[in-house]
Amino acid sequence: MSMDLRELYQEIIIDHNRNPRNHHPLDDATTQANGFNPLCGDKLTVYVKLSNDVVADLSFVGCGCAISQASASLMTEAIKGKTIAEAHELFQKFHHMLTLDEEPQFSAMDKLTVLAGVKAFPARVKCATLAWHTLEAALNKDTAVVKTE
Amino acid sequence: MTSNASIKTSLDVNKIRKDFPVLNQKINDYDLIYFDNAATTQKPKAVIEAMTQFYEHDNSNVHRGVHALSVRATEHYEAARAKVKRFINAKSAKECIFVRGTTEGINLVAQSFVAPYIVPGEEILITHMEHHSNIVPWQMVCKNRGSILQVAPISYEGEILLDEFEKKLNDNTKFVAINYVSNALGTINPVKQMIEMAHAKGAKVLLDGAQAMAHLPVDVQDLDCDFYAFSGHKMYGPTGIGVIYGKEELLNGMPPYQGGGEMIQYVSFESTEFAAIPHKFEAGTPNIAGAIGLGAAIDYLSSLDLDAIADYEDQLLHYATEAVQSVHGFNLIGTAGHKVPVVSFVHGKIHAHDIGTILDSEGIAIRSGHHCAMPLMDFYGLAATSRMSLSFYNTQQEIDFFIEALKKVKEVFV
Fold first, then answer.
1. Chain B contacts of A39, Cβ < 8 Å?
2. Most buried of A62, A72, A80, B361, CB within 10 angstroms?
3. Where are the alpha helices (DSSP H) in chain A?
4. Across the interface, do B408 and A43 touch by the CB < 8 Å criterion?
5. Model-level pTM?
6. According to the model, what pLDDT value does residue B157 have?
């Protein structure tokens, strides 16, 4: 396996795929949205519980490839406890990390950087961003299904 | 370890591989292993050169000019049509309409044959294993015309249930559209029998032949299908060209599909008369180079020992099937008795996309996804499968390497 691929499927991704964090529905969610990647069938629902302007709780359910599941799991860990404004900012940073040719703006300590490796596999970027686009839709109270096309 | 017997063939596969320039490259430092032929096939030099030759020496618009280049271009274009006629044993070349591909061919029949004549309550019958291109055009007709779409069920092995198919046929069934070979499963359907059953009920039949052309001899008169659609790029020809075959008497009775130049006899603002077939259905400047490329692909295939090819591909299929089954955890989807060399598989814990990416890192190209057959995926309760689709330029060694890579996929995840 090449180094690139090794980086992509690093322990953290495999771990988050096998034991996704916050992988359950949220009964008292303030808002939610559905996401779907028609290219491969990745499907998920993101649930958000807001307390004023803070994401008090965040979870997801769904099925899909390791990248999409791990990204969703890592996202819930990163966003929980942040304000809505911070959540939007993190989405932008994450999206840039995967789509622009820049050094990641996350600190090396930040777990989200493991997904930077997805950039080397353009066909998989949509897998990594699905959960984040869905979160954005939930926060913007867009109830239409988010698609990655 | 698989106890697979070695493949034996009279074909000189190494020599054949040299005909296909694209195969000679490395992907991520590994030799390319191209197992995605059902998506599109590679092109032999002869096809590429025929098209280049056209653009370098004979390029001109067809049918309209009196100058030398135009005459040459027209001759090449119509010669390609004659090659198609012989290749599928149509009664006449004018029954072979050039279109962009299978999808356009099916849409042409849906819009020009079925839609003008079908009435509310009448039925169109397809099967559960169809490609979206043989589902959506019929859904569109039904929505527009108030007709009803019926779906014939399949078995878990991926075979048509013939008695169930027959039960779905009734006096209201006006049209039947079925794939000859399934792109997702590799199943070869008993279409001759199905056509007889449909005709007995007064229904006309279209065959989606996209996946058949590269693997099976096709005789449209023997099959007695009313329409037959196929694509050049799935049979070693270029993209952007395909054929819709139709029985002459049916094509003659149909209104045009698209209007424009070429498909007319006479145009005035008071009235316009349409051309006779095939040109009635070929509006605008056609994909001339594409048609010539398709003709060259037919020539190339005809130069090969097609019986030896069929036997070799059958051995490849069995070798690959046994090999995938021998890796614990991978399950086959599509185990029909008669198949072309397509092997679809899943792993309980590893998503098709992840399998595809890891295989790609070792130079192996397979397809991961729903294969434009979402209803079929729903039938199996799956979002996606991984599909290897083979051709006569693939080898046993490539399959062996692929199996080692599959084992590595497991190591990453399990």
1. 369
2. A72
3. 3-8, 11-18, 66-79, 84-99, 125-139
4. no
5. 0.92
6. 98
